[in-house]
Amino acid sequence: MRQHFPRPRVSGTTLIVTGLLATLAALAFPIWSYADRSGTGLDTLNTQSVPTRFGPLSATDRIFITKVRLAGLWEMPAGQQAEERAPSKAVETAGEHLVQGHTFLDARVREVAAQLHLELPNQPNDQQQGWLRTLTAAQGPDYERKFANILRRAHGQVFALIGQVRASTRNTLVRELAEDANATVLDHMRVLEATGLVDFDALAQEAATASPPPATRSPAPPGPTSAPGSPTPVSPSPTPSFSLPPAASSPKNPGSAKSSKSPEDEKNEKDAKEPKESEETEDAKDSRATKEPQGPGVSERTAAPR
Known about the structure:
The protein contains nine helices and no strands. The chain is an all-alpha fold and 306 residues long. Residues 32-37, 247-258 and 295-306 have low confidence and may be disordered. The chain starts with 11 loop residues before the first helix and ends in a 15-residue tail after the last helix.
């Protein structure tokens, strides 16, 4: 004979409470897991920044200061070498700009590092030392070509970092240093490009392979179907001409103005004014006569007008 055990009853309230707890847990878990996750951009910024009296100093700020110092450690010797060995005036001029610019910039970065209590390198890194060896071994036109392209590539890389730091740093000293570095590096890029030896195709290909592809690809504008011909000058649009109203003349003196009324109108106006003038004269005489004092022996009768 089977034994029947009573089934436990689950009330509706228990089910509702259990469902609410499960929902809250599902909502809270992503927030907790994200807040605990390390390696995010904001987490890196907060944990790797140090406070200074000039503003927070981030890890990117410190990398930028180090790179400015390293650039001077190898580009000044490269510029001096170009001044001594360059067979062309353009490369010699580029060398002069390198020496002058990095002499100034190196003094600025050492000043900033001292105020921020940062230690700076005193030797170029391995890659920069390899570039110097390559330039030392080259001769003639080969030297000039390698000088222009190696230095232009290096300046382009640090130029991107300068823009990032200038746009995002919270430290006033780093911001001012970024502005000085921007002007110096831009000048160096221009004089290097003025040599006419920079391979821009190689620079573009290197940048395309070094940077990650964009998350969203934008369609490029369609290129020309055929080689464009000579530009046709565009004639300027004719200046629209507008009819101007007549110039306003200044009012003339009443005495010099000539009347434009006909003689008949002038006569009618004159005739209309004469009775009014006569009436005003009679009224004035009567008023004067009533105001005259009367002495003894003078009759109260008003004297007749003469």
